Amino acid sequence: MKIKVGIIGATGYTGGELIRLLINHPQAEVKKATSRSNVGNDITQVHPNLKGEISLIEEEFQIDTFLKDLDVVFLALPHGKSAPLVKEIYQKHIKVIDLGADFRIKIPEDYKHWYELDHACPELLTESVYGLPEIHKEEIKKAKIVANPGCYPTSIILALAPLLANKIIDANNIVIDSKSGVTGAGKTLTDTTHYPHINENIFAYKVGNHRHIGEVEQELSLLAKSKVVINFTPHLIPIDRGILSSIYVIPVKDITQEDLDKLYQEFYENCPFIRLRDKKTLPQTKWVQGSNYCDIAPIFDERTGKIIVFSAIDNLVKGASGQAIQNMNIMFGLDETMGLRLAGIYP
Amino acid sequence: MKIKVGIIGATGYTGGELIRLLINHPQAEVKKATSRSNVGNDITQVHPNLKGEISLIEEEFQIDTFLKDLDVVFLALPHGKSAPLVKEIYQKHIKVIDLGADFRIKIPEDYKHWYELDHACPELLTESVYGLPEIHKEEIKKAKIVANPGCYPTSIILALAPLLANKIIDANNIVIDSKSGVTGAGKTLTDTTHYPHINENIFAYKVGNHRHIGEVEQELSLLAKSKVVINFTPHLIPIDRGILSSIYVIPVKDITQEDLDKLYQEFYENCPFIRLRDKKTLPQTKWVQGSNYCDIAPIFDERTGKIIVFSAIDNLVKGASGQAIQNMNIMFGLDETMGLRLAGIYP
Amino acid sequence: MKIKVGIIGATGYTGGELIRLLINHPQAEVKKATSRSNVGNDITQVHPNLKGEISLIEEEFQIDTFLKDLDVVFLALPHGKSAPLVKEIYQKHIKVIDLGADFRIKIPEDYKHWYELDHACPELLTESVYGLPEIHKEEIKKAKIVANPGCYPTSIILALAPLLANKIIDANNIVIDSKSGVTGAGKTLTDTTHYPHINENIFAYKVGNHRHIGEVEQELSLLAKSKVVINFTPHLIPIDRGILSSIYVIPVKDITQEDLDKLYQEFYENCPFIRLRDKKTLPQTKWVQGSNYCDIAPIFDERTGKIIVFSAIDNLVKGASGQAIQNMNIMFGLDETMGLRLAGIYP
Amino acid sequence: MKIKVGIIGATGYTGGELIRLLINHPQAEVKKATSRSNVGNDITQVHPNLKGEISLIEEEFQIDTFLKDLDVVFLALPHGKSAPLVKEIYQKHIKVIDLGADFRIKIPEDYKHWYELDHACPELLTESVYGLPEIHKEEIKKAKIVANPGCYPTSIILALAPLLANKIIDANNIVIDSKSGVTGAGKTLTDTTHYPHINENIFAYKVGNHRHIGEVEQELSLLAKSKVVINFTPHLIPIDRGILSSIYVIPVKDITQEDLDKLYQEFYENCPFIRLRDKKTLPQTKWVQGSNYCDIAPIFDERTGKIIVFSAIDNLVKGASGQAIQNMNIMFGLDETMGLRLAGIYP
Known about the structure:
The structure is a homotetramer. Chain A is an alpha/beta fold. Chain A has two domains: 3-148 and 318-331, Rossmann fold; 152-315, Dihydrodipicolinate Reductase, domain 2. Helix content of chain A is 31%, strand content 20%. The first copy, chain A, is built from eleven helices and 13 strands. The first copy, chain A, has helices spanning 13-23, 43-46, 63-67, 82-91, 108-115, 133-142, 151-165, 195-198, 212-224, 257-267, 317-331, and strands at 3-8, 28-34, 72-75, 95-98, 128-130, 145-147, 174-180, 203-204, 230-236, 243-249, 274-276, 294-301, 306-313. In chain A, the strands form two sheets. Chain A has a seven-stranded mixed beta sheet. The first copy, chain A, has a six-stranded parallel beta sheet with strand order 2-1-3-4-6-5, sandwiched between helices. In chain A, helix 1 (13-23) links the parallel strand 1 (3-8) and strand 2 (28-34). Chains A and D meet through strand 7, strand 8, strand 9, strand 10 and strand 13 of A and strand 7, strand 8, strand 9, strand 10 and strand 13 of D.
């Protein structure tokens, strides 16, 4: 029998992507989807691309009715909105995967620092698992609440994990320059994402204070077993999907390109969604478009002695909905690649 | 046992798309792929997006060796290159689906007129079937050679078929204004498809003499049971994938919007890849991106008494590789949607 | 002494473009600019591209104060908003160029039909001149109110004028398929112009009922000296600037390509902003980007006997602010090209 | 009397941009333009955007004939091609501005290291001046040979000069992450710049070995009065024009945001093409599109103690042809802004 899935917040980009991906999942089925803006309508009115593949009328949201018969709930809501709902779902012993930010940061004070909000149920923070399967797979298997990582953090943590876990680099001199497609900014209309503004344009934003810094430093510190501080600068670029992170670090020991390659190969040996690239095939966002892959290339710059790591993901797949389904697979004991064997759409 | 597939011309965009789609086909498997430029290398060196999903070393092409054990061959070659190969494959009783132009036009003189070339095996033209499943499904079932339609023709013929088959419109006053993404022009480098030229640009090309006119007029004439002459103007627009055709016709009898809607619904009743849209949900190429759907909306303009039909496809899927797989499914007695249950990637 | 210019509605795209172009005008100077959203701020806060070239604090709008010492006022306001202001400016004997729609349509009932609004000062409609210099230059010289044409109408009327004025074509079988960049939709945020929606997309909108039909049919009928009815379908494409109109018409007399070329050359002999192109150099929006040119190519399709005319403009320049300045030049007895000798920005 | 200009290598993007900008220069006139591919044709056949603004038939190139009556020659040629020509022009006492790389690097061995070529006239290297007017204005005034800086170096050196000249930062920990539009890669067709590849894509290239590193380190070392070593990573992004450089450095003394702002204001006090921005108005390539401005914002990140400097230019204007004209103005004693008072085209 298939896993019965409910989606709260189904009208956004990640909601639509969840449905698109789950339509082809052999062991899961979207039973319910809800959102404030589409009550009474079929989900394909909001997501016309899905017409012909699914039909699902959204009902007025009432939590008890909604949760009935569900095995797992995906939440795709703004921060602050998830926490109270997660609590209710958790109490009903239904698994929950939160694509929002509310359960990513484990220390309530840190959450408050980055989100300027008191956490609604701090007692559940330790119950939840940071859902980056390449790092936390064993915990995800047993988790009842999974906090699906942010898009930038996914691209960054996966790029740096082998270096920090092996104490190869200076943990306080990490420069992260990330470039994101516009879907990362969501469906809400803003001056910045109005076509004539971002088209033919590139700019940095939230320099040094993007909220994702919190979860990145938390996870990198865990890996390094010491406090890690990063410089993180996100940029918006005129593409739909994709994040490329270019990360500059300083080795604290002698290292060669061969060492680096070996290190990454061993670290990611059993990770089906990590593809290692090299200097001649540097990660490109278009190679991962529509797929759950994270392409990574660690490069040793002999001239300067620095290491530069590049990683590319599709922010809506490995950076959100695909990773959420990967987490679901792991939570339910399925092969983690189930329903996610998607080559990137190129071109 | 799975259908054993061979692909000749595997390095182009349609070759890559065939492999991408077949990877997830439950009843078919790509066994061999060949091309001039990639001998000795893995197919994923040319198509890095496919890395992790398939591994297939291309061998020096020798037709007998290549055909051994294959059930079907897809050809993705320039016009003139397919015909001799098709003949050899046909003689070995292996099914063949030609994504090129060589078998689309049934009259050798017409082929010569549009392609400025004598046909290499005119005797096989009548053996081959024009592979537009919504029109020729029964013939495709029995076909040994399927000529997969061109991308523009697919979008045009599907948009006009119900009107011409029912003699609703003047068959000599058909204005077709099509807009295509740049993948339609292929992988060959040209001044026109150099990024700085086509980006932020739009222009018409081959006004009144595009080769696709031949197959469109042939098929529309068959549907209308009378000679159809069209005005066809293709345009290049700065998107990767997608064709939008806007078609202007003149009804020869009284008609209403309701009549039109009913006509199209009935005509396409059993066609899983046709999605009918209306004035409020006019076809958009982005709703079909990555999918095998053709979205169609016939609109009656009351003020002027004209009919305007819009159709949108992904030129690499319904306009090429997806349709080729749909044809394969039909030729092998499978459900025509097998492996093609793809919602469009949005955004 | 320089012409003293005031701009009402200075924060939109056409307002910004007016200022950008006027900065380099040798005989005009922007003295005042106003808008609701930017009072108290420098105009370069809304248009950061202009920083360093101009500084102009916007004051609370009070019409008498605003008009003081001005020679001409440009209005860049939504329809319905211009009319009352134009009346006041006109009464003070100050020249006015309205980039909005309120004075383009000469018959109040037609205005009401297309804009669903009673005109605020119908008595001024006959005082105003439709500001398409290539057609109405003599009237513009004497005009006190100039109604600057819409962007689509500019591209359409210029493409068809020689044919209709010379009664070459059937005036009731005119198919106009126009494609516009996204700045044509203005600065207001909409779902349609959100980057992830319109990027990698194309679609038609307002099929058969776009408001520009009114002014196009009015002007074409004047040229043809008989009622002209058009089919007009606008499309949105993912570029910033540019309109390409592809226009399909049926000759009512024998004609050749040479006749067509001669006809257009003669008609536009003294028009410095019309560039005639041919089959090998079909109009491309990128050749006119940032310039006041309208590139036109009339093509005779021998196979079908139809004529197809292509025209390309930059919707913010020849389709709006550049043309407005061209009108100002003519109204003030200057060379019409003054300040507008701009080659297109390519690439 | 106007400066008589000759252009060698007129068919590329920078050649076309030189002509476009010089058309409106009040004190200069393009008298001759030459290139291998367009002999016998008008320059507007290669640059159709310029039609109507200039007419200039390209003649068979013969250096003596070409140089006759010229006051200055611009060279827009690949590296290695300029040097011999520059020598000949220099010997005839005609001023020369080389947009190529041959005279940027002052030490022949360094030139050989980066360009893998012996320099054709090393004796002239000391005669030539690195044409970055904000740094070398006095030398440019007297120069006979100006080596126009590369596009990346312009964006980088201008961003870092105030910090290095004032010894604010660690000169051996400079991370430069640059993103360039596709015109930076020139007009030559490549797989990388084929529209379907770079559209919807981003990737790094030439990590740690891009040729521009040579001139950047040379100039930064001069400013710092000590050896500077940089990490430079260029990326290609899907826009036509624009470079955004994001530069990460480590202060070696206590500093505040106010200090930084003051430092940059003073350093660039008399530089009309430098516009300083701040955290709320971070540089965006679209604000400088088509203009000669370099927008710069130095940001102090309090949380980490690092400095991040952003700079944005149009690679074809301030990064090439605009800067070349700025150099010409200075060499001929004109106001350096003459003909370059161009606000950015937005949007």
